[in-house]
Amino acid sequence: MVGFRYEFRLSGSGGQGLILAGKILAEAAAIYDDKNATQSQSYGPEARGGSSRSEVIISDKEIDYPKAVNIDLLLCFTQEACDKYCKDIKENGILLVDSNYVTNIPKGKFKVYCLPITEIAEKEAGKTLVANIVALGIIVELTRIISKEAVASAILSRVPKGTEELNLKAFNIGYDRAKTLK
Amino acid sequence: MQRINKKDIKLMTGNEACAEAAIVAGMRFFAGYPITPSSEIAEILSCRLPREGGVFIQMEDELGSMATIIGASLAGMKSMTATSGPGFSLMQENIGYASMTEIPCVIVDVQRGGPSTGLPTLPSQADVMQSRWGTHGDHPIIVVAPSTVRETFDWTIKAFNLAERFRVPVIVLLDEIIGHINEKIIFPKKEEIVIIERERTKENPKTYLPYQCVDTDIPLFADFGAGYRYNVTGLCHDETGFPTNDPEKIDALYRRLNRKIERYTDEIIEFKTVSLDDAEICIVAYGSSARSAYRAIRRAREMGIKAGIFQIFTIWPFPYEELTKISQHVKNFIVPEMNLGQIAHEVSCATGCDVIKVNRVDGGLITPDEIFERIKYVSV
Amino acid sequence: MFPYEKYLRLDKFPHIWCTGCGCGIIMKAMLRAIEKSKIPKDSIALVSGIGCSSRTPGYVDFNTLHTTHGRAIAFATGLKLAKPKLKIIVVSGDGDAIAIGGNHFIHAARRNLDMTVIVYNNYIYGMTGGQASPATPIGKKGSTAPYGSIEPSFDISGLAIAAGATFVARSTCYHAVQLDKYIEKGLLKKGFSLIEVLAPCPTYYARLNRIGTSVDMLRWYKENSIPVEAAKKMSRKEKDGKIIIGVLHNIERVEFCEEYKKLVERVKRGQATF
Questions:
Q1: Do B230 and C64 touch (CB under 8 A)?
Q2: Which pTM was predicted?
Q3: To the nearest whole angstrom, how far is the Cα of A126 from the nearest Cα of chain B?
Q4: Which of B160, B354, B358, C152 matches a 20 to 30 Å C-alpha distance to C183?
């Protein structure tokens, strides 16, 4: 049986919570959904700012090569990241962008979803800080690779104490919003 | 299938698994100095060790870190430090001291690009030779190189076992990829974990000779402060532990120190082979490059190319004999590594074959495609 | 007669030190201080680095550790933290302690880690043939300073005080009787104590600087030393070029092992959070 391997790349700037979002995604798959998962990141010397890239691989088999090369879903929070990484999306893959920051949409054989993710976080969840979690909600619904429950459990285990409700709210907002896209 | 308790499944990094495993192995003394990409090990242990009643100390530099863990081990504690290339270079003199005085300890080197400051946040496997020959003089050493988070857990424990068993410094070579990747790990059951302690003397302190070996080449240990009052020196010494200039005794010491590893290679060397039985092409890989190699041989097999893998866990002592045996039926060896060919040279020595090297030194992990291309090239 | 045999590894004699060397004088003062302090031999760890002074551990019957150049204090840090009941004495030279090992010296003092460091200051690298050290006085010669050193020298005691040591005393090999007392006080002090001892190196320092014999060096110590109490009343000019001897510094400060123990207790009780 040929197993599946699903590759995510979450990209933008440092401080946008992409590393945490990647860890939540990987933890949801690995612990709550009984799959295998890896999460890795590339980073520069900056503690804040700079470009940030978080990659998640989910598979039902052992994950050997842990980097994303044939991306199933690319999330971009900056135009720069989008320009740089869109070429790595595989045929029929998904490009998800924050439409307030990525205005020049590249052309390719992939599906494109544009949503003002940060704005949604600010207006509907009440904090721009949870844009990463809103994005997670969107991703879960768009890809249907990991169960909603698993991601919710992983969010609860990874986010700071006292922010659980806010984060779950943000997650559900993203999830519901993605349904309207299809 | 056995049910796995959810508590035993975690998503963690290689650095986290290394710190956790060290505690499981009984390590209760850590001294270190911050350096990317190894710092998380120190950070985790600064939190964990006080809870376990152990000691964490951040030293003023890596020279001091290495010296301090040797001191702690001499007092009877299992000790370790963690660093990366530049810090590892600073530790080398005292690693030689631990070899010479036969004081067990574990050094974790999370490799980054070098020489010098190099590529602090990017992976490399360029410390392979430094780990073997970084300190001066002929000396015994054991170096292990895991490739996954679970292997990092297992091999950190084994590193302590080997250090305790053979009274040598043992180096765990990780790299930035394994150190920082978050990966699913299913912890082994407690009863599956083997922990070895150094063999301590039961001799009367009056007649105890700290470097006397009977039957084995491994002397029996006495903790400092346990009533033995012996001498430890980095000078060439005889079995009493005091300096000697007697050529016969000097020769005997150096030969025994190195024999200690050579004699027990069967016990030390570990590797894993996959699809090698009928293979015409053998990939020899270690550390994170092995992960790419597994993917490459799977692709090759799907295309009907007979490729297999020889994954080395203990890169020093190197499995020369095992590779020589394989070279009797395989003639094509491919060695992928994130350096310019440090292990390729050893593979070539062992097999007598021209080894095809796949090297990357740009801070990127070798891709399965890069290895697969070479497999294809060889197979036609 | 003091029972030196009780502490010496007599089968390791003759020692390697030159005739007239100060190392033996300091070693004997240390043994007398240990005897007076009543610390049992089994609980003493004597740690050294590399150099003439660092050969001391080979001749005395304690837990003895002869380490690498400059690192004695770092090795000792591991011993002490792993087994706090050990009484740690580090013997070191000027080059070993404040050149190659300067970093560990100041940081152990800063931590106020409980150990007694005895620095044999002979102004020179004796073991390797008389090269200049950071303690070589300006203008004095060494085999690597044939025209006289142009570098200002370190005040070893002053460095220890500035770095945080809680007990600091200076003596010379001429003032051996006082030296016993300083070492004893250092041993009994809970914290980082430093005893700096000026020691003659007749083979290199005295010869390269045409000072004469070891006896001439001792005479020079005698004539140029001022007790710290007297020095307090003297002007800077009067003190210029003199050796100030005595207990230079003695304060109370939290000791590192004790503090670490408290941290562990706090963490275990769940009172420490991060």
A1: yes
A2: 0.96
A3: 30
A4: C152
Q: Give the span between the Cα atoms of B254 and B237, in whole angstroms.
A: 10
Put simply, whether B349 touches C (Cβ < 8 Å) is: no
Q: Which domains does chain C have, with CATH numbers?
A: 4-268 (3.40.50.970)
pLDDT of residue A15: 86
Please name every residue paired with B314 in a beta bridge, in sequence order, or none if there are none.
B144
- Dihedrals φ, ψ of B333, to 5°? -115, 130
Nearest chain B Cα distance for residue A63, angstroms = 8
Least CB–CB distance from B53: residue in C71, C79, C264? C264
pLDDT for the residue numbered C228: 97
Nearest Cα neighbor of A121 from A64, A173, A67 is A173
* Facing B182 at nearest CB: one of A26, A45, A65: A26
* A86-140 pLDDT tens trace: 999 999 999 999 999 999 999 999 999 999 999 999 999 999 999 999 999 999 9
- Is B232–C104 a contact, with Cβ atoms under 8 angstroms apart? no
Which chain B residues have a beta carbon less than 8 Å from that of A38? 181-184
What's residue B355's pLDDT? 97
Question: How sure is the predictor about B1, in pLDDT bands with cuts at 50, 70 and 90?
Answer: very low
The per-residue pLDDT of chain B, averaged, comes to 96
Cα A14 to chain centroid, rounded: 14
Residues of B in contact with C86 (CB under 8 A): 75, 224-225
- Structural tokens at position A8: 């995510």
Q: How far is B181 from chain C (nearest CA, A)?
A: 25
Q: How many CB pairs under 8 A join A and B?
A: 63
Structural domains present in chain B: 6-192 (3.40.50.970), 272-379 (3.40.50.920)
Asked if the ipTM is above 0.90, the reply is: yes
A170 forms beta bridges with none
Amino acid at A71: I
Please state, for a pLDDT cut of 70, what percent of chain A lies above it. 95
Residues of A in contact with B121 (CB under 8 A): 42-45
Spans of chain C, pLDDT less than 70: 273-274
Residue with tokens 């180096």: B171
Label residue A1 by pLDDT band (50, 70, 90): very low
Compute the distance between CA of residue A158 and CA of residue C140 in angstroms, rounded to an integer: 65
Helices and strands (DSSP H and E) totals, chain C? 11, 10
Would the CB atoms of A65 and B368 count as touching at under 8 Å? Answer: yes
Give me the phi and psi of B52, to 5 degrees please. -90, 5
**Scanning every residue of chain A, which has its alpha carbon at the shortest distance from the alpha carbon of B10?**
A31
Which of B4, B150, B183, B294 to mutate against chain A (most A CBs within 10 Å)? B183
**Prior bond to C227 cis, omega within 30?**
no
Superfamily of domain A5-179 in CATH is Pyruvate-ferredoxin oxidoreductase, PFOR, domain III (3.40.920.10)
